[in-house]
Write the structure tokens for this entry.
Amino acid sequence: MTPPARRALHRDLRAAADLVGCVRDGESLASALPRLGAAWDGAARGAAQALSFDALRGLGRASALLAALHPKRIKPAALDNLLRVSIALATAPEPPYPAHTLVSEAVQACALHPGTRAARGLVNALLRRLLNERDALLRQVLADDEARWNHPRWWIERLRAAYPDDWQTILEQDQRRAPLTLRVNVRQGSRDAYLERLRAQGLDAAAPAELPQALVLQRAVPVQQLPGFDDGAVSVQDGAAQRAAALLAARHGMRVLDACAAPGGKTAHIAELTDVELLALDHDAGRAERIGQTLQRLRLPAAQVRVADAASPASWWDGRAFDRILLDAPCSASGIVRRHPDIRWLRHDRDIDALARRQRELLDALWPLLAPGGRLLYATCSVFPEEGALQAADFARRHPDALAWAAPGQILPGTEPEQDGFFYALFAKPAAA
Ligand SMILES: C[S@@+](CC[C@H](N)C(=O)[O-])C[C@H]1O[C@@H](n2cnc3c(N)ncnc32)[C@H](O)[C@@H]1O
């Protein structure tokens, strides 16, 4: 990708087109972004990322508009992606730049890639026609669900079936930008004290009553601008994710398993609240490394971190039962689309059943490791019932000794502005007679 000589919109558009191309090819933004290269560090990367986020939020609409403007397939991919990104941004409900600016910068961006160099005329003609006929074109394409809601059709159908009254609200929420929510490390100071530190720096935040360590910033800032971030005063963590530690309710000295722990957000929260004997597992070695780094930044007691498959306890369990088990299971991540607008375009319909099977295996493998009187918390950041309520009900049916404990169940994204879509089920094992 071409590095920017200076910040300029046409270069950011080219980078966003490359990023959206990666997502269309099945790669996550998190993995594609670092490949922009060193010249795209800091503000330049932030600008390209912000444009690609906005473009992905409008990709269903842009694809339908492009098909209406140019029914034949556009080649090469570099040109196709530049057009989709420009169309998505120019027709966004709140365009990041005036539509005419986006069009002229998109034409300028053609010079930056061998695949678009000869296409200035075509880009100019298609995008000018878009502006001139915008309302009629939108009327024509928005009858289609994928264009209207900017999610894949199968995703919309699953939500429509699961939430006959709420599916549209969920899809609308997915289009919003989530607020930046912090978790104060109460080992270092109270939430009120940290709020004062923020205010002293001209940053204000709300303190939600039901999330005792959370602060919701009024405007997002890079983490390096948060006072004491490097020294572990605070972490970035969505509000719904912050409910795990309280639900688990680990007490001093307990033996706790965090079975799918990387990068360690919930592990750290548990360790911030109480001194426990903590084992954190993740089967991905690269991600597992981040658990130790998270705990270190927060100046927390080290946990035992192991790279292991939680579904195969024979390979890592020493036979001593756990008082608490957190299974924050691998899932579709369909509840955190506000923060990761690429997710909807990366998943496939068939993934949901495969993930549900994996979650079921993990639950069944971990339940025998729980001590009598212990609790297992099952969590996913998903809104699909197969990974949430149906999974929990199925588990309870197979394990009559699992007592369902009070837990929030399905949290839908944006019900509270600081909370993503999440599912929590809590199971208790009867104490030994
Ligand atoms: C939802 S993420 C966990 C997020 C983490 N709990 C946090 O709050 O920071 C799920 C994690 O499960 C891990 N994972 C998936 N399958 C696993 C398995 N069979 N055993 C252990 N870890 C697994 C993934 O590598 C991923 O890091």
The longest helix spans residues 349-366. The mean pLDDT is 95. Residues 260-266, 281-284, 287, 309-311, 328, 330 surround S-adenosylmethionine (CB under 6 Å). The radius of gyration is 23 Å.
